[in-house]
Amino acid sequence: MGDGSLLEVTSADGATIGVEVVGSGPSLVAMHGSTADRSRWAPVREALSRHFTLYLVDRRGRGASTGDPDSYALRRETEDVVAVAAACDDLPGYLGHSYGAVIGLDLLATAPDTIAAALLYEPPFDIGGHTTFPPGFLDAYEDLLAAGDREAALQMFYRAVIGIDPEPMRALPIWQARLAAAHTLVREGRIGLRYAPGQEDFADVGIPVEILAGTTSPPVFGAAAEAAASAIPGARLTWLEGQGHTMIDADPDGFVRKMLDFFPR
């Protein structure tokens, strides 16, 4: 049983990964997306903890995770998940949102035996003429960071990439965590979003996998979800009618129902 205490695990490169453990039931490792930390799961944390022992990870470079080296690679984050999974009391499920879903794809390609099932919500990567970032976005974003205006950078991200008005988001407690992690978007955008899944990468996947995509999200998210689902043997693609990239905030009850429908309890 998790009581909300903080667990620290050591990843393959020596980085310390902080994980909040809360709830009871089968283990479920949750990896948040860009410009966030484990508090991203606050809208669904209490409901999910009634059914699962949640391992809420602070992805490297933010929150309780320390020792992140200057040289970034997607594979380092995958190794972080492997280290967290090894600390679970049972073979965990994996829940990844946004960039956390990209990490989940790399985990399925390299270490699928470390998890029992994977539910991935809109993994973002460029595919089939669809791009995650508009031309010049990351350069303009970096300029705002260099000028010390994280607020403007983050608002630009929500408008230009996620396609929503950031004003309601600014009122949420997660906004401060997003500001603190704003700089990590650059490395994920320049390196991680080059990820391109191919069928040969997932030949060893034999666990349940479901990819979720909202019908109101920017087209690149749906295209990437379709590509990921088609590359993974037996994977299911589910379209969420009327939902966007931030379903966790807009419809937390519906999000929890999807978790309960998919993961065994």
UniProtKB/TrEMBL annotation:
AB hydrolase-1 domain location: 29-257
UniProt-listed Gene3D superfamilies: alpha/beta hydrolase
Organism of provenance: Nocardioides panacisoli
Xref: SUPFAM superfamilies: alpha/beta-Hydrolases
Molecular functions per Gene Ontology: hydrolase activity
InterPro entries named among the record's database cross-references: AB_hydrolase, AB_hydrolase_1, AB_hydrolase_fold
Domain of life per record: Bacteria
Record's signal peptide: none
Keywords recorded for this protein, A-Z: Hydrolase
Protein name: Alpha/beta hydrolase
Keyword Hydrolase in annotation: yes
Keyword Membrane listed: no
